[in-house]
User: Which sequence fits this backbone?
């Protein structure tokens, strides 16, 4: 099996560190934040709540995996209103994520569950709720959508969540069995 952390960095991630799936907690208060719809993905995608499944279903699904890695793209920003830089970091993160996952699924046939950042970005417009998902085997929910508090997951696994003034980090993860 390939070195996943090294390969994640080859794919463009800044950080790739071990994650213990046993630390993951699926919290109703995170779902409540989704329902507030600040990200404008709630009830608009198969990959987001409520369509992506209940907290109990995610707990059960994740219990299948013994290992994990936390993935981060960290970039420079002028300040929190530097939307151009923030969007660039988000784009780099999405490209790295898709590059990594496509190889792991198509070439390595890895038994894995990727959890992304934000909503599913595979299609320009999601088919939800009128038609089935176009790419059910490439549609990944975000960590938040599953009920994970991302900063808590980072802390519990010894990885920084906040890199300080002038930095922005996007965090995703991959759960897997080898
Ligand atoms: S793959 Fe396309 S249809 Fe499926 S959840 Fe993602 S955006 Fe929606």
Assistant:
């Amino acid at each position: 099996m390939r070195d996943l952390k090294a390969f994640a960095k080859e794919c463009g991630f800044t950080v790739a560190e071990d994650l213990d799936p046993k630390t993951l907690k699926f919290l109703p208060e995170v779902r409540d934040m989704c329902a507030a719809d600040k990200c404008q993905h709630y009830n608009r995608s198969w990959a987001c709540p409520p369509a992506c499944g209940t907290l109990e279903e995610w707990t059960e699904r994740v219990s299948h995996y013994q290992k994990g890695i936390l993935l981060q793209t960290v970039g420079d920003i002028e300040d929190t209103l530097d939307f151009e830089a923030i969007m660039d970091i988000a784009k780099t993160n999405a490209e790295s994520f898709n590059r990594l996952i496509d190889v792991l699924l198509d070439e390595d046939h890895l038994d894995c569950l990727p959890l992304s950042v934000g909503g599913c970005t595979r299609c320009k417009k999601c088919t939800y709720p009128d038609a089935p998902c176009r790419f059910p085997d490439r549609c990944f929910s975000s960590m938040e959508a599953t009920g994970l508090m991302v900063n808590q997951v980072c802390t519990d696994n010894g990885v920084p969540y906040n890199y300080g003034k002038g930095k922005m980090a996007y965090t995703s993860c991959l759960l897997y069995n080898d």
